[in-house]
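Field reference: sequence -> structure
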Amino acid sequence: MERVNIIGAGLAGLSAAIHLAKGGVPCRLFSLQPSERAQSVLAEGGINGALNTMGEDDCTENHYNDTLRGGVYMADPNAAARLTEGAPGILRWLEDIGVPFNMKDGEIVLRNFGGQKKKRTAYARSSTGKIIMTAVIDAARRYEVSGLIERYPHHELIRLIIDKDSCTGARVRDSYTGKIADYNGIVIMCSGGMNGIFPGMTTGTTQNTGDAVACAFSQGVRFGNLEMLQYHPTTIGISGKRCLVTEAARGEGGRLYIERNGSEWYFMEEKYPELKNLMPRDVVAREMYFVRRQEDCGDQVYLDMRELPEETWQNKLSDLREEIISYLSIDPKDTPIPVHEGIHYFMGGIDTDIRHRTNIRGLYAAGECTCQYHGANRLGGNSMLGALFGGKTAAESVIEELSGEDNAPETEPAAYEGTDEYSDPASPELIEKISHILLESMGIVRSESGISAALDRLRALGNDAPAGGYNAREQNRLRLAEAMLLSALERRESRGAHYREDYPEKREEYRRTTVAELKGGRTEISFRELPERRQI
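Structure field:
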């Protein structure tokens, strides 16, 4: 049987690999870094699932409703329903493979998280991503022994092999030896968010360049909701990136304030008395943006955790405290910490159907590189869930596809002689210029004039190519950046992470998926209606 090629070895890639192997389908796991250094290890606060272990009468329908509401009703309702129905099973599976969640009386302890009225977020102190990844990596290794999973760390995708709207494999380079080879078979993209498009401004790993998804877009893969960038309200600046201060800090009682007329103003509690500091992230980030611009306020928002009990610091947030002391030389037990919004998650990405199939036959996608479960804003705690459930769903879809085909024998990778036009990296100077253009126009507050001016600057940059022209990766970045700006321009409303000061209200006619696709060298933007919810 031909092996399936998985691009990315974080939670989505590992989940896809494990569930393929469970079904007897062999796969290859390609990644720039070993799984231990994947972006998934950076997740801190927890993973959602309506286990109802806290006696609050929670259920999967509540989780579904919060997911839809948090995404401002722009997520595919059928995909969201499958995700939330499957969440308890994902948590029990993680428990079975050895994830040491915080427990009490033999049950998983759940905490509050933003945008949710019930305690629904399972956690392992404040290093949930690292601890889950450790268990999932071990689970994958059991299948590596039998040969069903083959690992290729330090390998990067050069391009997809696409023939007549069908993906037949992946061209991959060994970054140690420089050798390039073509690997035949179905491809599942699990390459993570587009952090490298905004270097230094995201909470994600600096190793995620964004080149894989930019390449996919340039090869005709359809994308959705590219205008939806989640700004997390509580981040701190460190060398080369933003560092996340987990939402769990607010879930456990942390409070946001700004100085107004010399006094501490806990603005979220005054403006949103029901959920207070645990409103959805887009709301909190936007309020932080606005209060800093009030004449009677200072220019810095603080996260106050001075009232948290010692037990919380010891058993739930010990890792976070150590991190803040290390980076800021501030002990959050005693001193409020300065926080700022930072790009944290990309709700937009590769457009897939409910089975994680793309518009290219033989190409699937899962995890943060996709546009699937989150609509206009992602709930905290739904990211690791979406990665694990998405990888599982993509694997099940591949198994179903392969079940109706002849099991042709596996072919050996074909060495590719010479260099591929997609091989040369984009220049740091161009990456920085594109990033600045996007950041100036796709911040927390946007406008038609700002987006249009950014498009003009981006196109001028594209026309001002150096001698010899831009290389393929540079062209890919320019195309993807243009698609992001065009998506933001065409959505003439404010919804979730997309706030237009010239269109400050939601408009029902825009409660649709923004679709971006490269056709004949031009980016086309359209809107697709959301389906009605079906019973599952």
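Note: The chain has a mean pLDDT of 95.
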